[in-house]
Structure formats: C-alpha cells, structure tokens
Amino acid sequence: DYVFAPDKEEIYGENFSTLVTVENLTETLEGASRPGHFRGVATIVTILFNTIRPDFAFFGQKDAQQVAIIKRLTKDLGFDTEIVVGKIVREESGLAMSSRNALLSVEEREKAAVIYKALRAAKIAVKEGERNAAAVAAIVRSTIAGEPLAQVDYVAVVDNETLAPVEKITENAVLIAVAARFGNVRLIDNTVINKRS
CATH number, domain at 186? Predict the structure, then answer.
C-alpha cells in the first residue's frame, strides 16, 4: 500500500495560475452560497487524477453536487477512473452523518432529523404517483418548515446528472437536494428518485 500526501507547494508550485471549471454544474445549490468552491474541488481532483491515475475514486452521495461535478470532469477530461459513490450514512434518527452535527445542540440534533423525514415524505409521494417536481419540493419545504428550529436555505428537484431543474419526475434519476440551518449550523442532505422509486 502507498499513501500520496504531498504538501501544498508540491501540488500547486510557484505562481500556480490554472483553474478547472466545470460549467453549468457549479453555480447552483451549494455553489450559490460558496462561490469558487467547486472550481477549487475540480482543480485539485484534476491534479490528483492526472498525477496518480487512479483506477477508482470514492466520493459520498451526501455531497451529490460534488459527485455530479467529478463525474462530468472525469468524462470530459478522459480520465480512466471509475467514480464510486458511497451511500449516505445516517444516524439512528435518519440525520445524515456529518462533522457539522457535533456543532448542533442536543435539541437541534434531535430536530434536524426532520430533513430526512421530509425527504422520505417526498419519496413516498412520488411512489404514490406525484410527478410534479414543484409539488414534491413543496412537500419537502413544508415538512421542514413545520419544525420551528429549522430554516430552509433551499429545496431543489433537479436532474441527477446535469443538475438542471426538472418540472416532472420521469424514468430519469432525479435528485432532491436540501440545505437547512439549525441555529448557526447549515446541513445538507439529498435523495435520488425516479417515478418507479
């Protein structure tokens, strides 16, 4: 086994000025509140893939936008790397595991499970025949808004690959993405559905 752990200077070098941008995937969802973040992600991943030429690279579904960006980057730049997406790991309450959870109060952590409850409600609605994306988003938003400690940042129903908004849920994979605040802590979560799920 080998570990590649270069320092910043080895990766970027003196007067580094090249950045990688994946168009149309980085400006919405998380990108709207973190300008430039995904350009940094795309740049460092490109450098790493180009340097070590991995057969596999592992990313977590919890960061669904990052997954879509890395998949597009890998395809567009011809990297022979399989992107493996790990499932979201959840606490017993359904809350997606995150280092940010430790910043929540006991009550906030308990109430934050409403995000998962909202995503499940959306999934059930689709399973029962709801196809209108706006209606599905409204279910998620209203479920979370029913928790007084929660403040919804966004609810988006988008194509899982292109992250383009969808009007109708069809056979194609659709991502329902959520960001909500509990106190000063911003949490994200998502689920992937189609009309058969």
Answer: 3.30.1300.10
Residue 184 falls inside a structural domain: yes
Summarised one tens digit per residue, pLDDT across range 103-138 is 999 999 999 999 999 999 999 999 999 999 999 999
- Phi, psi (5° rounding) for residue 77? -95, 5
Residue 20 lies in a domain: yes
Nearest to 174 by CA among 132, 139, 141: 132
Over residues 133-146, the pLDDT tens digits come to 999 999 999 999 99
| Helix, strand, or coil (residue 192) | strand
Domain of residue 82 covers 8-86
Residue carrying the six token digits 């990766």: 11
CB 81 within 8 A of CB 71: no
